Amino acid sequence: MTAKDLRSAKLGTVIGAFFKMMVPLIVILPGLLGRAVLPFELVSEPVAQQTGAHSYNEVLPLMLVRYCGPGLLGLGVTALIAGFMSGMAGNVSAFATVWTYDIYQPLIRKQATDAHYVRMGRWCTLLGVFVSIGTAYLVMSFRSIIDYAQVVFVFFIVPMFGTVVLGMLWKRTTPAAGFWGLLAGILASFFLWLWVRLDPSAVRFVALSADAKLGMADNIYRAMWSLVANVVVTVVVTLFTKPKPAHELKGLVYGLTEIPSEGHFPIFKRPITWAAAVGIGFVVLNIIFW
Q: Residue 265: exposed, middle, or buried by beta-carbon count in 10 A (0-12, 13-18, 19+)?
């Protein structure tokens, strides 16, 4: 990889980080505006099902109906559907690809034709769609979509973060350690969530405080325990399994990858400059909205 290619890859990640910091604004601002201007009170999803009132999840359609004319209303609904279709297509495609080429082919059916793997990918896509429909009904038991999103995030993204970081920075990490560490993190998060779900008072043990409440404290501390379980299991399994040869890890692990110099680029074209700007923006936003 040349210095120019590396710079482009880094800048792509940094640009994505800028947009990622806007997500809370995009998610929270419509809800705040809806609460201020709508002539009725929004309630949680379970309460809405019992009373027939409008829930937090309906704030965008309600705002569109209230403030947009027929043309803009159609455009807004089209944008919502397009966003859903784009996200759905990306997630289902990723699900089929990871299952077919990262799990099914290397572990279950190593020698098969391309047509066979294409069929497997199609069936996996169909299964993914039905699973998505099922989870849509599962969301209805949560107070809002954002609560559900936080739970799913802690289930999968936090353990994956630990596995990816260890795999990138520690060349001793083995594939078996990555698998068992990821599984341990997911199971730890799931069982802690189930424990609190069955016994809400257990949140004081998960969050290490008798004053902890269900919701954000529960999610944050489950994320911490999930990451701890992931890292501990990954390290322990790594020490008892054989690592891959160094030549197979070139380009994948930080210590074994040659990084071209970016010193000849102007300062405002260097990824480190914009990464620092992202870091400063992150700190400032956390101070403002603490």
A: middle
Are 175 and 244 in contact by the 8 Å Cβ rule? The answer is: yes
Instruction: Using the predicted structure, report yes or no on whether residue 255 has a pLDDT greater than 70.
Output: yes
The reported pTM is 0.73
Amino acid making up residue 250 = K
Residue 229 is predicted with a pLDDT of 95
Q: Is the pLDDT of residue 215 over 80?
A: no
Q: What is the DSSP string of 166-226?
A: HHHH-TT--HHHHHHHHHHHHHHHHHHHHHHHH-GGGHHHHTT-TT--TTHHHHHHHHHHH
Per-residue model confidence (pLDDT) at position 186: 93
CA distance 30 to 79: 15
User: Residues 236, 254, 252, CA angle at the centre, nearest 5°?
Assistant: 85
* Helix H or strand E encompassing 129: helix 114-139
The tokens describing 223, both together, are 């994320």
CA Rg, the chain, in Å? Answer: 23
3-state secondary structure of 55: strand
For the chain, which residues make up each domain, given as ranges?
88-143
SS3 66: helix
